[in-house]
């Protein structure tokens, strides 16, 4: 049997056509991994023992087939033969090959291996398509494979970008494919449309079993349409590249379905997945994304925000410190991130310091000048920023018009400025609403430091757009699952409770406290002129300090011996 297997592989290696697998006969499947059309199969690959696989009983109606293999983060190599060439093999976590079938061919084989030291768990499936179906990657000019059905994925902290090769029209067995770049009429590949789909894994699910299970919903056209979200439809004139906002630690699967609107047929590319993080990194891997510094910063921020949510209007100066902290901290973080190469922890510490300075300056401005409108403008702009962020967090933010930075920032600023303008006639209500919504949202941000929630991307997407010049092209879809519903309910409950409590408690009280500097000045003048006031007789500050120092010196003075110190008189 071993000799027979070697003979089969030798025949495969000598096959000159690389667009499809070679046909085998008889019982040559002995010792090979056997697959069936449309059936997923789990198996493990080991570095010392590569595998050869076989598919039999291919229908005569099939014109081509796509074999795809998936793993979580360890690379797997798939090839037409044991001889690995750049245009006949692919390596990665989500890879596939197109087999162009010859007349009368009913069997295909391929070679699988991995260079990873650890065993790799895989799932694979072969899918067949007819001559009427478009060929994914059939007009590839960018990547290595002659016909490339793969989706190539790149990510960084800000965005995840997928790229794929254009498709070609289908054709029958034994015939030549249509030219890709001759003519742009209805009889050419330029009539094809590309639907880009996005599928979110369950939040906080980093398991291998979960990924391989959900990948099965993204391999075939009907399952993709039923399970995933269609993000955008591209024409043959558009670039075959789409960007998304990176969701670190959140599993996402992408796929593209190419449609032929004239024949009403379609075919699916090989799906690709990402967590926007590395499983093998020593620091900041997918299992430990949340830094200690982030947890400390947002936990303290949430404690202050929770206090503001329920008592902010009563403790006016504390609320001003909170608002000033947000204002200065946000803009300072953008500035040092764009202009310096400091590490994240250093930037976070400097942001905390700068935010504290901003809070102190706003409190000092109120204490000295007492300009209520200026303070309420800052308060209203912070609430407007949150409302504007929520607006663009909805599907409205994915409209093509807002991919222009100028349009986006002008619209965003107008919405933010509109809030203090609308509430200019009822400043106390504006202040209480800001305390309730902004204070409670700080709890949402703190929750994201411990447990993933998509609600943190309400403001994080705006921050990403301010930091990265390419983020304008990214779609900002996020999953909305059980954790998000719970945290949204908590956010709403805290906001409503805080607003209701403050409105009831402040009923019948002055809208805002008086000017602190005027009160201090009036009190000082009263003390100077009123002799009967006990505070009038308080010594100046300098004398009081000297007296305190004298008392401290007395504590360290050596005790004098008791007894007579003068000589006795005779």
Automatic annotation (TrEMBL):
Task: Please state what the protein is called.
Answer: Transmembrane 7 superfamily member 3 isoform X1
The TM7S3/TM198-like domain covers 299-503
Output the InterPro entries linked to this UniProt entry: TM7S3/TM198-like_dom, TM7SF3
Tell me, in one coarse class, where this protein mainly resides.
membrane
Species of origin: Callorhinus ursinus (Northern fur seal)
How is it placed in the membrane, per its record? Multi-pass membrane protein
The cellular location(s) given in this protein's UniProt record come to: Membrane
Signal peptide residues are: 1-21
Q: Which UniProt keywords apply?
A: Membrane, Signal, Transmembrane, Transmembrane helix
User: Which residue windows are transmembrane per the record?
Assistant: 296-313, 320-336, 348-367, 374-394, 406-423, 430-452, 485-503
Q: Does the keyword ATP-binding apply?
A: no
Query: Which GO BP terms, alphabetically?
Result: negative regulation of programmed cell death
